[in-house]
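Hello,

Our lab assistant flagged a job as stuck in the queue for most of the afternoon. It eventually completed. Since we weren't sure the result was trustworthy after the delay, we are filing this so someone can double-check. Below is the sequence as submitted and the structure that was eventually returned. Let us know if re-running is recommended.
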Amino acid sequence: MRRISGRLITVISGLVSLTVSIPVLAQAKDLQFADTSSARSRNATPMGIEPFDPQDQSGGASKSETKSETTYETKTVSSVYGFKGVNDFFNIREANSDVKACEWEFMIGSNWSTFHSRKHRDDDFTMTPSIKYGITDDLFAEMELLPVNLGDGLNLPNSDGADGTGDIALKLFWQFLHETDCLPAMAIWGEARLPTGENSEKVDGTLNLNLTKTICGPLRAHLQGFVMTANGSRGDWDRIEFGDRRHFQWGVGPGLDYAINECNMIVFNYLNRSSDYYGSHNNNILELGYVYTINECSYLRAAVDVDTHSDADGAHWSAKIQYAYSFGG
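-- returned structure --
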């Protein structure tokens, strides 16, 4: 009986100890779980928003959102160094192509010239229409009706006034180098006079080389040189009183233009070229010009030319104007 009583007391003591320890362990586990949940709740933010970072200046915005970035406006090379309106209306043109691929341009020009040489004294008023087409951005073709004399024609004694009215010129222009910060723009172009006019004969050919470089900001410099083979003449310009026409001719000269603003530009050129006839002085021609950009499709140009040699065989004073309009492209 004593053994049974002792074992019974032991079992009862164990049960009492287990009964007391279970609530204590449960309470401790609840406290540990609460601490863990509290830590997690402190680190988490509602709706998946990232916790605030003191070094984050975005005001707590989600990192998954697209942040605005600073953009810098840049100009393309073509907009900085492209065509600015100085075409072959002027004695020295720029080397940039006038038109883009598939673009047409129509031009109409008017000119007044006065001649005071011993061989020819006259005032001439002429009109010159032309049209060009852009084959590529750097290559274009042009057809021009050479100056049509309005009024008295050639105005020579013993002449019916035939001055080659109706002659046309075909031109092909290729810009083979575009201007960069280090390199100039360069172009080569050819012109052929076809004897389609009154009393004209044979074909004349001219090959030109042009260079253009921006000096600083709105100031640009140009250089042009040409060689020409003169095989015939327009109308009665080969009369004996003029002498023998020079069969090989050449010319070279620099030019400057300055953009006053986006719409207005002034041009200054100097051209030294051989005379049209043997026995005459070279033509040294100063030119002051102006370009007004009406809009991206049209230009208005004007210029005054002065030959510094009074006995040269070309015009001594000239005033000219041209309107150009482009479309397509």
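-- support follow-up --
The delay was a queue issue, not a problem with the job. The result is valid. The radius of gyration is 43 Å. The first helix runs from residue 2 to 43.
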